[in-house]
Amino acid sequence: MIFVFKTNVDNISKVKKVTPKLNQLFPNCKWNFDLEDCDNILRFECKDDIIEKVIFLMKVIGFECEAL
Fold first, then answer.
1. Which domain of life, per UniProt (predicted)?
2. What percent of the chain has pLDDT over 90?
3. What is the largest CA-CA distance in the chain?
4. Backbone phi, then psi, for 11, in 5-degree steps?
5. pTM here?
6. How far is it, in rounded angstroms, from Cα 28 to Cα 48?
7. pLDDT of residue 64
8. Are 26 and 46 in contact (CB under 8 A)?
9. Which element (helix H / strand E) includes 16?
10. How far apart, in whole angstroms, are the C-alpha atoms of residue 36 and residue 23?
C-alpha cells in the first residue's frame, strides 16, 4: 500500500530529525520526503495500515502531518 501525507517538514535538517524515529518504528516500510512539493509530501510504501501511527508520531516529535 502507498500512503501520502502532507507535512511541514521543509528542509533536510528536519528530515534528519525525523529519520531515526521513522526507521525505528517502521523498519519494514520504505519512505521518503518530497521537499520540492508545496505540501512537503511524506510518502510511505508499507504492507500495513500505518496512517494513524505516522500522524501520531509526527505530532509527538513536533511536526504537522495529515493524510492525503
1. Bacteria
2. 100
3. 28
4. -155, 165
5. 0.93
6. 9
7. 97
8. yes
9. helix 12-25
10. 22
Closest CA to 31 of 5, 60, 68, 57: 5
Nearest in space to 58 (alpha carbons), one of 16, 8, 1, 2 = 8
Are 45 and 1 spatial neighbours (Cβ–Cβ below 8 Å)? yes
Q: Which residues of 14-36 are buried (b: 16+ CB within 10 A; e: fewer)?
A: bbeebeeebeeebeebebebeee
In angstroms, the CA 22 to CA 44 distance is: 10
Angle between helices 51-60 and 12-25 (to 10 degrees): 130
Listed in sequence order, the residues at least 6 apart from 57 whose beta carbon sits closer than 8 Å to its beta carbon are 21, 22, 25
- Alpha-carbon distance of 31 to 43, in angstroms, equals 5
Q: What is the DSSP letter of 68?
A: -
Q: What is the pLDDT of residue 54?
A: 97
Alpha-carbon distance 56 to 38, whole Å?
22
